[in-house]
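sry for the spam today, last one i promise. struct tokens for design, 347 residues
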């Protein structure tokens, strides 16, 4: 049975509609203030209204609910406001890309290349760039994902002493390497073997792998450290070898986080432009050979089309939309993989 104190606390709470009423009044007050002093704008009304709302809702809560609930409402309002502010550029970016890219995006755009397209012709698509992006990103993933996962396993399960510390420092340094440096590194390696005229998707894959590997190592390492040691000790107590414990227990437990980390690494490199300008260049036709010849990629395609302006700018926005859709599809596949292979209790 509730006590008198409990009833008193509950009776002093604001009704659910009160914060919304305060918010509406704050926006009206901000609009009136701007109408008297300057020309009202949506951004100005929202900004001033938000400031007024923070002060007003805290003051009303202090008078009705007391200091403790007022402090709670203030913290909740600030956290919610920070979230909304962080969402503004994301929503604006997606809206701009969808609105501008949707004008040219379509089946013809996805299935045609730029062969025979000159000047400001409205035809042409990004099929060759899509193939090139899948090639380059696939090569980078084949190199960096196994290397990154094995390195993370070593650091968490086996690494001790100076070697582990040296690898950790190296990974931290590689995380901050500019993308253009990775491109120059890969170009220099193949330059000494094949000469300066050699261009291929392999060089671009190596350049992106340099950027992708430290991200994979860091994310997988953090996921492996979150696996409780009790699970490892239980497997050891049953006589399971350490390598089998890592494969069957540790990796299976952390597979959802590992998949997420890998997808973050892929999203990190799939939109890189500078290293691909140096290593793979650009071409108007579709090149299915990943080991020889220039190959188009979506980031470079978007850059070149936007630089030309006019009708080409529409193709650039459509290419950007295509790149976002590819990343979204990869994330959906990653979630499906993590759902299938995660332990049943973690699904």
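last one done:
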């Amino acid at each position: 049975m509730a006590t008198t104190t409990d009833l008193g606390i509950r009776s002093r709470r604001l009704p659910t509609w009160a914060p919304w009423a305060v918010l509406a009044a704050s926006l009206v007050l901000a609009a009136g203030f701007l109408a008297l002093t300057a020309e009202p704008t949506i951004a100005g009304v929202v900004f001033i209204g938000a400031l007024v709302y923070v002060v007003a809702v805290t003051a009303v809560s202090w008078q009705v609910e007391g200091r403790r609930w007022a402090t709670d409402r203030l913290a909740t309002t600030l956290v919610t406001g920070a979230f909304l502010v962080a969402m503004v550029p994301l929503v604006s970016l997606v809206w701009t890309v969808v609105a501008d890219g949707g004008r040219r995006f379509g089946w013809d755009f996805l299935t045609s290349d730029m062969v025979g397209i000159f000047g400001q012709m409205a035809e042409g698509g990004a099929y060759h760039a899509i193939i090139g992006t899948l090639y380059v990103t696939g090569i980078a993933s084949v190199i960096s994902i196994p290397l990154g996962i094995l390195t993370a396993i070593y650091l968490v399960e086996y690494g001790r002493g100076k070697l582990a510390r040296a690898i950790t420092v190296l990974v931290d340094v590689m995380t901050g390497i500019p993308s253009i440096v990775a491109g120059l590194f890969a170009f220099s390696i193949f330059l000494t073997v094949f000469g300066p005229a050699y261009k291929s998707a392999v060089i671009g894959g190596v350049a992106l792998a340099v950027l992708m590997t430290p991200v994979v190592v860091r994310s997988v390492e953090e996921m492996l450290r979150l696996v409780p040691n009790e699970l490892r000790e239980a497997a050891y107590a049953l006589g399971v070898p350490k390598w089998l414990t890592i494969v069957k227990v540790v990796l299976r437990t952390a597979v959802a986080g590992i998949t997420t980390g890998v997808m973050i690494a892929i999203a990190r490199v799939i939109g890189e432009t500078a290293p691909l300008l140096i290593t793979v260049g650009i071409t108007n036709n579709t090149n299915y050979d990943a080991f020889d010849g220039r190959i188009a990629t979506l980031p470079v395609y978007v850059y070149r089309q936007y630089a030309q302006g006019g009708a080409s700018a529409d193709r650039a926005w459509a290419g950007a939309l295509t790149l976002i859709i590819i990343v979204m599809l990869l994330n959906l596949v990653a979630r499906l993989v993590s759902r299938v292979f995660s332990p049943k209790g973690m699904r």
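The first helix runs from residue 4 to 11. ok im logging off now
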